[in-house]
TrEMBL record:
Gene3D superfamilies: 2-enoyl-CoA Hydratase, Chain A, domain 1, Lyase 2-enoyl-coa Hydratase, Chain A, domain 2
Biological source species: Schizophyllum amplum
Gene Ontology biological-process annotations: fatty acid beta-oxidation
Gene Ontology cellular-component annotations: mitochondrion
Protein name: ClpP/crotonase-like domain-containing protein
Keyword Lipid metabolism: yes
Length: 286
């Protein structure tokens, strides 16, 4: 069933029950053309909205040995964003505005998912790769990972997500700004120092994907109602004051505390058996 979500440049598999592995595979360097980023958004939106797949955690990785992504396909973007021949700059700006908003929405599809998305990063993670990683719930980096917020080098400010998310992710504003202004590459260890990743895994692609899948297997053992609610409340807290977030939590849990998952969690612990949680949608199978 998982393979039915695959596209020309994105492979989807289910290596463990309820854990979906989404791999980027546009050779030679996973450069994102418009078709690619639209496909990226659709894959995650389809996984989120599926009436049959019981997805409880996803791992996002690259299928290429030496590269997560080289970022935006510059030639593809230039052809779309060109205003040559336009007689009205306001109308040209309107078109570009809509294009960028659509692009942002596609890449933010991981954040819209009710399940956590873990980024398994290796090799080069350039430009749009940092945007994509920033919107995932958890980020693991292989020791060979190298990052760059590259947009300034092509004459623009990063506009898909990095500059909005990174200040909320990092505890080191000075380093975040240094990297964004200078575009200099930084290592997995520096990404850990920055707070962009939570773990550096010795090795490369295979090792970081394995570590991310191990985390995903742990997550899917938990109540999907609890995990989904935790993701929603964490995202809300990130963007709101403590008082507003606590008020929202009260409203959310007024409904969610009625879940049967609480009783199942308690009984399974008492009887020392694995819990059996119902799917988040009606048609999916356990």
């Amino acid at each position: 069933m998982a393979d039915s979500f695959s596209t020309e440049w994105i492979k989807v598999s289910e290596p463990h029950p309820h854990v979906y592995l989404v791999e980027l595979r546009r050779k030679p360097v996973n450069a994102f053309s418009e078709q690619f980023w639209r496909s990226f958004g659709k894959v995650f939106d389809d996984l989120r909205a599926s009436s049959t797949a019981d997805v409880r955690c996803a791992v996002l990785a690259s299928a290429l040995d030496k590269m997560f992504t080289a970022g935006l396909d510059i030639k593809s973007a230039a052809s779309v964003l060109s205003t040559e021949g336009s007689t009205d700059s306001a109308r040209a700006a309107h078109d570009v505005h809509d294009y960028i908003r659509t692009f942002q929405a596609a890449i933010r599809a991981t954040e819209r998912c009710h399940f956590p998305v873990i980024a398994a990063l290796h090799g080069h993670v350039i430009g749009l790769g940092v945007d994509i990683a920033s919107m995932c719930d958890v980020r693991y980096a292989a020791a060979d990972a190298s990052f760059s917020i590259k947009e300034v080098d092509v004459g623009l400010a990063a506009d898909i997500g990095t500059l909005a998310y990174l200040p909320k992710i990092t505890g080191n504003q000075s380093l975040a700004r240094e990297l964004a202004y200078s575009t200099r590459p930084f290592s997995a260890q520096e990404a850990l120092q920055l707070g962009l990743v939570s773990r550096v895994v010795p090795g490369s692609r295979a090792e970081v994907i394995s570590a991310a899948l191990d985390l995903a297997k742990t997550i899917v053992e938990k109540s999907p109602v609890a995990v989904s609610g935790t993701k929603r409340l964490l995202n809300h807290a990130r963007d709101n004051s403590v008082d507003v977030s606590l008020d929202y939590t009260v409203i959310w849990n007024s409904a969610m505390l009625q879940t049967k998952d609480i009783a199942e969690s308690l009984v399974s612990k008492q009887t020392k058996r694995a819990p059996q949680f119902a799917p988040m949608n009606k048609k999916a199978k356990l």
